[in-house]
Every structure is written in structure tokens, then in C-alpha cells.
């Protein structure tokens, strides 16, 4: 997400004295996910989203507690059932096959590619 958009969203929660009140759970999780994907220093991130460093620490702490204790984790756990119909009886020679909807087959050369695919499809 662009930092300017996040800054505008945060400004809607900012009081006249510069403090934040009643940040929604979605906003907290959005800040946390953006921070987790950010590769720069904490101080630059806080400047980019328009928050003082002393304000951002407690916000991220609260967001982590919320993410841990609630369903804001990007959806609840989804169980994947593997039926014996989808299991092949021949060796895959190091390749991974994923069968979707019983007809679509996606083949992955490496486990890392499968993990990347699953992460992107979950988002």
C-alpha cells in the first residue's frame, strides 16, 4: 500500500493534539502488515506514514496482540483435505503436483515455488 494512502487513513483517526483515538482493528492490522513487509528502518517507516516513533511502537504492539488473539489474521484456519483420488501412485521425481477442483493440475519444480504460490493465493 502506498504510504500516502495510509497517512490519509491515519489522519482520520488523529485528534487535534496529534494523538490517535479509536483506531479500528482493520487499520491496526493494515499498519502491522505494512510494517512486516517494510524493509527499511523503523524511523523512516514512521515518517512515511506520518506517525511519531513514540506513537508507532504502541500501535504495532496493539496490532500484534489483536492479530494473535482474533480472526484478523487474514481469515480463519482452513483445513485442506487430501483424498486418495488425488494421490498419484508413481514417483514425482522431485516435482510437486497440486490438483485444483479435480481437473486443474499445477506442477512446481521446487518447494519454494509452491510456498510462494500459496502465499500469493492466500492474499
Structure commentary:
The protein has 123 residues and is mainly alpha-helical. The protein has 2 domains: 3-69, no CATH class; 78-123, no CATH class. Helices cover 48% and strands 8% of the residues. The protein contains 5 helices and 2 strands; from the N terminus they run ααααββα. The chain has helices at 3-11, 25-37, 42-49, 53-69, 111-122, and strands at 96-100, 104-108. The chain has a two-stranded antiparallel ribbon. β1 and β2 form a beta hairpin. α2 crosses α4 (53-69). The longest helix is centred in the middle third of the chain and has 17 residues, at 53-69. The chain is elongated, with a radius of gyration of 21 Å. The model has no long low-confidence stretch (mean pLDDT 80).
Please tag this protein with its features.
single chain; 123 residues; mainly alpha; two-stranded antiparallel ribbon; 5 helices; 8% strand; elongated
Short description:
This protein is mostly helical and 123 residues long. Helices cover 48% and strands 8% of the residues. A hairpin with a 3-residue loop joins strand 1 and strand 2.
Which residues form runs of ≥5 with pLDDT under 50?
none
Overall structural domain count: 2
Counting DSSP H or I runs of 4 or more residues, the number of helices is 5
Strand order of the largest sheet: 1-2
What radius of gyration results from the CA coordinates? Answer: 21 Å
Helix content: 40-55%
Which secondary structure elements does this structure contain, and how are they paired or packed?
Blueprint: H1 3-11, H2 25-37, H3 42-49, H4 53-69, E1 96-100, E2 104-108, H5 111-122
Antiparallel strand pairs: 1-2
Helix pairs in contact: 2-4
